[in-house]
């Protein structure tokens, strides 16, 4: 029974199995909330940054253990979402395998990339997609940590943070294909990187190579390969659910990849300077990817 408890709480609990994404049942599931939240984030960040500039304060504002606690919280939440999504995907595959064996139209890996047409945002995997969406708001705090430490606030930081929230929303709104595998990959990397950030924040040794930027490169590379797989399956199988949202998502991911490569080439090959890890991206996919080398 003890071994079954994690599976029950992460994949078989009635609240997870019976989850349904809808404006009446899910907090933050309306378009008005999405745009209001993003607008409030941009306004708050730019206002704080402007006030600090006008105050002519040059020294960083002490934050104490807050950034370390934040990194630990994100790492733990990401680990829980990863395990929950993994168990939920396994349960969904197990329960529908009989249908696939009869129709011979899909395999478990194909389902991870390409939802059948008509898929609705309900059930286990969409519950964890919803939790992932909500967790994106916790990531926004890193922007304010950066500002209070007197680091530069860029347009791309605000843009990319907003876009990542927006993409998480449309995954649910349109039951977009590929989101299960995307969340598994992302939360796995998040748990490692934010665990590393917590490790360094409490004064433990840093890696002797650009750890965070390499993890980001791996994540972007995996996303690129998976997007190609979704397109292939969409053309081969006659359609994947939410392909319109996937197309929009692909454009945004392509822009993020371009900015990442551009910044990486500029900073890693044109300059040989030591920079603080606090200046690296406040989110995944950001172009502000500086990392301290030791």
Automatic annotation (TrEMBL):
GO biological process terms on file: fatty acid elongation, monounsaturated fatty acid; fatty acid elongation, polyunsaturated fatty acid; fatty acid elongation, saturated fatty acid; sphingolipid biosynthetic process; very long-chain fatty acid biosynthetic process
Pfam families in alphabetical order: ELO (PF01151)
Membrane topology note: Multi-pass membrane protein
InterPro entries: ELO_fam (IPR002076)
GO cellular component: endoplasmic reticulum membrane
Transmembrane segments: 31-54, 66-89, 125-141, 153-172, 178-199, 211-233, 245-265
Superkingdom assignment: Eukaryota
Keywords: Fatty acid biosynthesis, Fatty acid metabolism, Lipid biosynthesis, Lipid metabolism, Membrane, Transferase, Transmembrane, Transmembrane helix
Location(s) in or outside the cell: Membrane
GO MF assignments: fatty acid elongase activity
Major location (coarse): membrane
Protein name, UniProt field: Elongation of fatty acids protein 3-like
Organism: Carya illinoinensis
């Amino acid at each position: 029974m003890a071994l079954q408890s994690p599976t029950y709480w992460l994949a078989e609990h009635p609240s997870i199995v019976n989850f349904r994404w809808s404006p009446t049942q899910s907090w933050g599931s309306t378009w008005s909330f999405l745009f209001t939240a993003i607008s409030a984030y941009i306004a708050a960040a730019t206002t704080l940054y402007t006030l600090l500039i006008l105050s002519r304060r040059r020294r960083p504002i002490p934050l104490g253990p807050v950034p370390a606690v934040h990194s630990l919280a994100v790492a733990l939440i990401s680990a829980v979402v990863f395990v929950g999504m993994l168990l939920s995907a396994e349960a969904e595959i197990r329960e529908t395998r009989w249908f696939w064996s009869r129709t011979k139209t899909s395999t478990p890996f194909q389902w991870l990339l390409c939802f059948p047409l008509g898929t609705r945002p309900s059930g286990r995997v969409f519950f964890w997609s919803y939790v992932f969406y909500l967790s994106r708001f916790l990531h926004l705090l890193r922007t304010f940590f950066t500002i209070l430490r007197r680091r530069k606030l860029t347009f791309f930081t605000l843009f990319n943070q907003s876009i990542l929230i927006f993409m998480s929303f449309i995954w649910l709104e349109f039951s977009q294909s590929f989101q299960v595998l995307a969340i598994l990959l992302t939360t796995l990397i998040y748990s490692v990187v934010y665990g590393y950030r917590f490790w360094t924040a409490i004064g433990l040794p840093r890696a002797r190579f650009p750890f965070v930027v390499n993890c980001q490169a791996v994540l972007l590379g995996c996303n690129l390969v998976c997007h190609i797989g979704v397109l292939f399956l969409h053309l081969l199988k006659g359609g994947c659910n939410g392909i319109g949202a996937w197309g929009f998502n692909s454009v945004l991911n392509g822009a993020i990849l371009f900015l990442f490569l551009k910044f990486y080439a500029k900073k890693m090959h044109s300059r040989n300077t030591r920079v603080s890890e606090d200046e690296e991206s406040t989110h995944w996919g950001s172009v502000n990817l500086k990392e301290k080398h030791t």
